Amino acid sequence: MALRFLSLLVVAAVVLQENCLGASSHSMKFFYTGISEPSQGQPHFVSLGFVDDQLFTSYDSNSRRVQPRVSWMEKVGQEDPQYWDTQTQIIRGTEEVFREALENLRSRYNQSEGLHTWQNVYGCELRSDGSKGGFWQYGYEGRTFITFDKETLTWVAPEPLAQITQRKWEALPGMTQGKKIYLEEICIEWLEKYLSYGNKMLLRTEVPKVTVSSRTEVKDGMETHVCHVHGFYPREIDASWRRDGEVWLEDTFHGFLAPNADGTYHYWLSIQIDPEERDRYRCHVEHDGLQEPLDVALKEPKSNLGLIIGCVVAALVLVCVIAGILVFIKRRQDDYNAAPRRNVAI
Prior knowledge:
This protein has about 350 residues and is α+β, with helices and mostly antiparallel strands. Helix content is about 35%, strand content about 30%. The chain has seven helices and 17 strands. The protein has helices spanning about 1-15, 75-80, 85-110, 160-170, 175-195, 200, 305-340; strands at about 25-35, 45-50, 55-60, 65-70, 115-125, 130-140, 145-150, 155, 210-215, 225-230, 240-245, 245, 250-255, 260, 265-275, 280-285, 295. The strands form three sheets. An eight-stranded antiparallel beta sheet has the order 4-3-2-1-5-6-7-8, sandwiched between helices. The two termini are about 45 Å apart.
């Protein structure tokens, strides 16, 4: 129950994060969420840690314990037996801070008691070109409340009531510099350490499988082709429709890049074209798992005539079967009415 609840909180946290991280080789992110009045046994506070979108640690106020979520995190405890106790104490302290923050914000916004949420989303990235990035952001009631700008060492508050917190935090000695050091140094060091622990999972390469499905639109005779790219890792991928070798964006639709249960990813993109120009288009895919870019040609959509004939035949067979059953029932009813009646003990 708790983990299902965590997933919902992650969705809200991702909304807060928006475009803090661009395409990167590896990243580590943490999502903290506190709620004022949980129901049905849900926790007041939840913490989730991700490396390259893989959940590797979690904590909630019901269990009161930081727990590993992947087998490779066992190596951390072997190297540092105090690791899990230390992390648990740190998160418990954060939990108390979140409780106080919720009460203060409710009072500041002059709100009644009830359900309110306070979230913190932060993380760092190590890009493929060697550069580093990071973000630190807070949200209240699912909306951005205050964001840290590590380049200017300032806090950015989008609304007047958040500017109260902005002034308070910028007045604290060393707070902004400490956040910058964490994002650019400490966070990156731990990211590299976790990557070394989980290298078999996190540093692997899975080749994308590409298939194209097609159909003809009855209304206007145009063809819709969908390029499915699935089973690939890492997540960074370049997939596009090409017309005569050039990227073609017209009448192109893109799906969401989403994870599979095995940790790989899938993606799709579709295009609508004139059947006469089918040979001009290709689904173009570039990925680290491919030695060279892959171009998949479009196929002529299969005719629906066979499907229609099959449906008609199946309907006729069904009618015959139903008619036979009705005849059988009628005969049994006649036999029953003609047979002598007897009392049967129950």
